[in-house]
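Next comes a single protein record:
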Amino acid sequence: MIKVLVVDDHPLFREGISTLLQSTEDAELIGEATNGEEAIEMAVKLRPDVILMDLNLPKKNGIEATRRITKQFPEISVLVLTMFDDDDSVFAALKAGAKGYLLKGANRAETIRAIQAVANGESIFSPAIAGRLLQFFKGFQPVPSTIFPQLTERERDILELIVEGKENAEISKKLGIALKTVRNHISNIYSKLQVADRAAAIAQAKNEGMGRKEY
């Protein structure tokens, strides 16, 4: 049986959750809190498995209460149940340690499933929230590691051209720099890569992925 503590300052909502939990054999309501401070106190006293946490609470908001509870009792799973669906609230709750984020208005089956999920250590979100989280993280592409970080950007450009088979004069013309400057850069490249000649530099560069579009 999942022991549930509900934290909300609206009596009608707490009553609705109580009725919901009475309709299932998987969970039971063991306490109700009306503000963030009470939530922390009751978490210490009752040690629930799951806390249904509203965010807009008097005295201490749901984010701070979640942070305090999960820090002291990491085994307690907090499921945020709120009207707020803005990105700031979602990410603040997750950062505070919430295991799930459900919007008020979720139906009976969704709510019970979410309670069961977080009680089992899973993370769960309302469909709308989950979709936005996916879109958010899709925007982050892994930053490719720089090949040969010991080289300057100009030296890497020249090495890439060398790998492509360009001669010094071609490199000079393409980059708009003096031929002597190209030779100096190539000398520095050999020194930094600890190679003796052009062929060795090309071999090492290709081995690291230079000359391929994905690098």
About this structure: The chain has two domains: 2-138, 153-207.
